[in-house]
Amino acid sequence: MHEGFFLPQKLRERLLVGVDYEVARVGGGTLWGNGSDGTGAEPTVTVRWPRLSPGLWNDVLAGLERQRTLQAGDILSRWQAALEAVIPTLMTDATTALPSLCSCTGYSAEMITAALAGGDLVEPEGLSAAMRWRPPLAATRRWLPVANLPGRTRFYPHGAAQTARTAALARIRPTAPLHRPAPPTDLALGFAAGNVPGTALIIALLASLANCAHPALAAPAVLIRNSRHEPLFAPWVLRAVEHIDPELVAGIALLIWDYDDFALQERLLRNTGLLLAAAGDDTIAALVLVRARCNPTLRFHAHGHKVSFAALTYLSPSGPTAPPSEANRGRAEAGDFDAGAGPDLPGLAALDSALWDQNGCLSARVHFVEGDADEYAHELADRMRVMASMLPRGSTPLRFTHRAFDAFAALEHSGRVTLLSSYDDPFGAFVDRRTWDPIVLRNVVNACQGRVVVVRPVNDLESEVPATLAMLPASHLQSLSVALDEARLPLLADGVGTCGVTAIRALGRAAFPRLAYSWDGYLPSDLGYLRPPGHFTTIEFDDLKTELGG
Q: What is the pTM of this model?
């Protein structure tokens, strides 16, 4: 029996005596329920969490309030020390925990290990530097460095009136701060959904920083609704942290309750000062309605459904399979990246689109390719075939891949679509040269699930990528993975940033974001500060060739 929740030890010992538990079987990222046999196709783990009465909810919230003793200014350094100390323990315990995590989420051990070991998501030193940085109004007019971190950021106001106002202020007072301190809060509330490991833990860490603008005050109590589809990872890590620094997690709770418990939802939102949610659009829309009813000024950082892309130049060592256009020829020849030297771009791109089987928002769905797109597509398919054995796909249904294959196979007769994979491959790779309108583009993007990638040949990345992304809702755009001559990056970055893209990473880094940079348009300082409506877009590197490993 696994525990899908976390309560600080003192509260656990005092409040959970004789409490009723809900017991469920979770497998393949799916909740089978208590006593349900499901399909029998996936291994499952049995998980429990306490069912709290209204009186116990009162006791939990009061207990968290009493136990928040750390100053807000000390939280991040304590997290840094605790995580550094706990990693050896977690690595030792991983051999025991990994099988259960694989069964619960439906991801392969190879994929989970690669994702968790290969990234530096938290990177406390970088996060600390980002927290100290106060973006000036000049960030609304040009790209600026972020503290001492690699990369740059720019702020894009939302709405014509706000854009005009901030532009006018930036001309007059470019060094004035864009942010102002938010009121301190006693409680920060979070919602984690989905089956990608670690979401609840990240939200708990970020929520604990909600009073960063008031370092001498107490850090807030933190309550997170854990995901029923991946309830194991965050409690496992928090229990390990508690052994090292019990005071750090004394004000944090991860629990599970029903979304349709409207009285509880309203009570929690009414008493919180910061709401964080990484969830589906339906859940976020429901939280927006509750917020409007009971706490309309509540700061809400919503991380809903998003989609990501890749943009790169690629030259075959044997020369292009088709002559580039006159306008494109000089640009392609000037590019830094080719298949005969430097980084393996198709391999990096395959990694971008394979991790988590395109669940979540990080995996690139459409790859915009300037240069020899056909050769690139063939190489990409080869790398994805290798990736299928190195990082086996999880329980994401193959019907997504089969459905995409059938749809593109039906279009092959047009001469505008090329198939690079077969029906039996555990991935899909296609070249699409059709004319795209918003409906066609939406269908293409939605087809890219379960390791399905569409290669889109273009003549000019800087103009065609923003023009294409502008056909999608800005609120649904997340990141762009890139590999191109760095001199061309500012124009492309500004184009896609204007469209709504919030993170620009080196190819191969899509599945390894860093919290020091923009997460869906929010910088770390947004946790404790207020600023005009809009989004930050960050470039997460200084030297693209170095970042790519070339």
A: 0.91
